[in-house]
Amino acid sequence: MTNITNQMKPLGKIIAVANQKGGVGKTTTSINLSTGLANLGYKVLLKDADTTGSATLWFDNIYSSLLDGESVPFDFEIANKTSLSRNREKYDFVIIDTPPQETMIMDASIKVADYVVIPTAPTSLDIDRVIEILRLIEDKPCKVLLTQIKVNTITYRAAREMFEDQDIDFFNTGIAHREAVIHSIGQLPNDDAMRDYRMIVNELLVDLDCEVNS
Ligand SMILES: Nc1ncnc2c1ncn2[C@@H]1O[C@H](COP(=O)(O)OP(=O)(O)OP(=O)(O)O)[C@@H](O)[C@H]1O
Ligand SMILES: [Mg+2]
Predict the structure, then answer these.
(1) The CATH number fitting domain 13-207, selected from 3.90.70.10, 3.40.50.720, 3.90.550.10, 3.40.50.300
(2) pLDDT at 98
(3) Closest C-alpha residue for ligand 1 atom 31
(4) Ligand 1 centroid from CA 121, angstroms
(5) How far apart are the first and last CA of the chain?
(6) pLDDT-derived band at 193, boundaries 50, 70, 90
C-alpha cells in the first residue's frame, strides 16, 4: 500500500456520517469509508461518537477474525461531544460515526465536519428524515447516500427522482443490499462488500478536492 500523503502534512478533513434515523447504515458506511480511504493510502481515524458503540464493538471483535498478516488499516477512537475533532491534525481523514436520536452529539459532529454523508434507505418515510437533517446541516458540503437499495426497483428510482426534483445532492452510486455488506460487520470489509463503497470514496475525494488514486 502506498501512502499518498507520506511526506505531506495530513489533510485533517472531518467527515461526519449522520442521520437521526436508526438502522440506515451509518456504522456500516463509517467502517467501509474508513477502509476504502485507508486502502488508498490515506491516514484515517474512525471515531465512534455513538454511545451504544456499534463501531467500538466492531473494532473490539475484529482482531479475532484477522488472518495472518492482516491488520486494520485505520485507527480507532471513542469520542464524545468535546473530543470530536481531537487528533484531526494527525490524520488525512477523521470519520465520525454518529448515533441515532441523540441530536446533541449529531449536531456537534456536523459542526466540526468538513463534509457530511447522510446514509438513508430509499423509502419515502426515510427520505422525510433526510429533509429534517438537511435543515440542520444548512450550507455545509453534504451528500445523501442511498443504502440497502435494490437496483432497478421503482422505490430506488423514485428516491433518486425525488432528490433530483428537490435539488438535493446525492451520491451517484447507491449501496446495494448485499450479504457481503452485512458480513463486513465482524470482519474487515472484503472486495465484494467494498464494491459500491469504492465508488463513494472516489466521489467523496473529488468533492473534497483530494487526489483520487484508484
Ligand atoms: N448495503 C447493505 N446491505 C445489507 N445490509 C446492510 C447494508 N447496509 C447496512 N446493512 C445492515 O443494516 C443494519 C443497520 O446498519 P448499521 O448498523 O450500519 O446502521 P446504523 O444507521 O449505524 O444504525 P444505528 O442508527 O442503530 O446506529 C445492520 O444489520 C447492517 O448489517
Ligand atoms: Mg450505528
Answers:
(1) 3.40.50.300
(2) 97
(3) 182
(4) 10
(5) 12
(6) confident
